Amino acid sequence: MTDYRELESEALARIDAAADLAALDALRVEYLGKQGSVSSLLKSLGAMAPDERQAKAPAIQALRQAVADALAGRKDAMEAAGLEARLATETVDLTLPAPEMPRGSVHPVSQVMDELAEIFADLGFSVATGPEIEDDWHNFSALNMPESHPARAMHDTFYFPDQAEQGGRMLLRTHTSPVQIRTMVSQGAPVRIIAPGRVYRSDSDATHTPMFHQVEGLVIDRDIHLGHLKWTLETFLRAFFEREDIVLRLRPSYFPFTEPSVEVDVGFALENGKRVLGGSGDEAGHGWMELLGSGMVNRRVIEMSGLDPDEWQGFAFGVGVDRLAMLKYGMDDLRAFFDGDVRWLKHYGFSFLDQPTLSAGVGARA
Ligand code: 2U9
Q: Is the pTM of this model over 0.90?
């Protein structure tokens, strides 16, 4: 019977002395690989006479098992030692704050409202808010639209069955103007506010949704005139669209709550078939786009809010926030604003927690 002890003790000694996993693997190939010395011994059994094979097979099998066990044992030991070494040197500081996980992004409409708040803050305006469920008096009557006023029909109002204790029927506000009424009544003059928020009208097509967003502005002070209105709107639109060449055109109009009333058009140029704001609409290839409504606050509205119209005057304006967002970011379907499809936001490049700040530039992208 052949003695394989010498081969075994040499293999075990070399396995024991292997410096690293690579050296260990080289030994595995050398002994147990396809061409390995132990594998060759196993293969040679096939060529032996049955008697000889019976005599030698147990020793060769035992040798193969001893080498395989030694390799596995040494590998486990090396891996355990490696882990021990990492545990000894690597540390985790559990007092560090956890990494921030992105949770979503600011909706374009919210982003535009934030930009408006920043631009108007620089002009001395504060942001005023009020209820979306209003009473008839704050939404209509106090704005010089009594019960029988034909302008009420233009608003397609959602009414509630409830009656307010004072102020008539309850409704979903059709504009943010009641916020300005509430501010004048509670705080008196002077006033310099913007009122951004949701408003509701029973209307639905590609350019109208039953809920949309408005921002209205109100200034009440002594000796306020149309010049203040025009400068304020010009300054606001130049900051918002980040263009110095925004030109305004004021056209006479009618709103019950302002007198005189003006509609404000902005000049645009056609570039590659797209309307780009800037320049006078009277130039060749240019045009005027209606953007805002405004005017001097009707003296009856000032009076109904408890102020003396001979002492206090003011201007007001209103504009659709969704429309401002569409124009600034080139979005063309209003309904997509309220579908909640994140692919639409990604398409227009609204990244995680993209926040505009005046210090970083209005409309700055992260
Ligand atoms: C008070 C007095 C006056 C706010 C005004 C407009 C003209 C106007 C529209 C623009 C597009 C509504 O979103 S829109 O459909 N708004 O044209 N809004 S003046 O006037 C006021 C508001 C409050 C106390």
A: no
- Asked if residue 180 has its Cβ within 6 Å of ligand 1, the reply is yes
Q: At what angle do helices 37-44 and 21-32 cross, to 10 degrees?
A: 20
With a 6 Å cutoff on the Cβ, whether 256 touches ligand 1 is: no
Q: Are 302 and 316 in contact (CB under 8 A)?
A: no
34 DSSP assignment: T
- Averaged pLDDT for residues 86-109: 85
Question: Between the CA atoms of 280, 282, 285 and 287, what dihedral angle is there, to the nearest 10 degrees?
Answer: 80
Torsion sign over Cα 211, 215, 220, 225: negative
Distance in angstroms (rounded) separating the CA atoms of residues 125 and 315: 13
- For residue 166, what pLDDT is reported? 84
User: Closest Cα to residue 131, out of 199, 213, 187?
Assistant: 199
What's phi and psi for 276, nearest 5 deg? -120, 120
pLDDT of residue 206: 76
Report the SS3 class of residue 252.
strand
What is the per-residue pLDDT across 37-89, written as a single tens digit (0 to 9) for each? 999 999 999 899 999 999 899 999 999 999 999 999 999 999 999 999 999 99
For ligand 1, whether the C-beta of 258 sits within 6 Å is: yes
Check pocket membership of 314 for ligand 1, CB cut-off 6 A: no
pLDDT tens digits, residue range 203-259?
888 778 899 999 999 999 999 999 999 999 999 999 999 999 999 999 999 999 999
Alpha-carbon span 94 to 101, nearest angstrom: 17
Residue with CA nearest ligand 1 atom 15: 320
Q: Does the beta carbon of 313 lie inside 6 Å of ligand 1?
A: no
- Ligand 1 center to residue 78 CA distance, Å? 77
Give yes or no for residue 181 CB within 6 A of ligand 1. Answer: yes
Q: What is the pLDDT of residue 107?
A: 86
Expressed in angstroms and rounded, the spacing between residue 297 Cα and the centre of ligand 1 is 10
Q: What is the pLDDT of residues 227-242, one digit of tens each?
A: 999 999 999 999 999 9
248 Cβ inside 6 Å of ligand 1: no
How buried is 327 (Cβ within 10 angstroms: 0-12 exposed, 13-18 middle, 19+ buried)? buried
